[in-house]
Amino acid sequence: MERALAAVIIILVLVGIGFLILRERQSTTNTTDDFALQTVTPSPRPESPTLKIEDLKVGTGAAVKEGDTITIHYQGALSSGQVFDSSYKRGTPFETEIGVGRVIEGWDRGVLGMKVGGKRRLIVPPSLAYGTSGVTGVMFELELLAIKEKELSPTPTEEESESPTPTPQEEN
Known about the structure:
5 helices; alpha+beta; single chain; 27% helix; Chitinase A, domain 3
């Protein structure tokens, strides 16, 4: 009888251990319900640090939005501090359309929301500037001078939109 009792106890212990192992495996295995509740957000590329924007002076005029043509003064410098381009030195501000890829992506993103009369510093990572080959990033100091009004095509008046009445030709 002692043997039978010992065998039952051993069997119960083994069943209990098996149950605990099975329960542990089920708690770490994702079910389809778990996946339905998870929100997947793309992580930023590790080689692509974020664009840093610092307002040096907040303007009081209109704010830049995608598609605007702006007039801006700028100075661009490498991370070493060496200036590589400056509209100030040329004495001529730069005009460009924003958000359509005519300038580096760091500018397209970095001037959005900037107000006329404002000054801003952009620290642009290579992935949003000129690429990752040999350049560690660039810095721009910007001064927004103007936002050009979009030219709308004139709407013809009612008189202009009517077809002209043909005039009779004189007979010779």
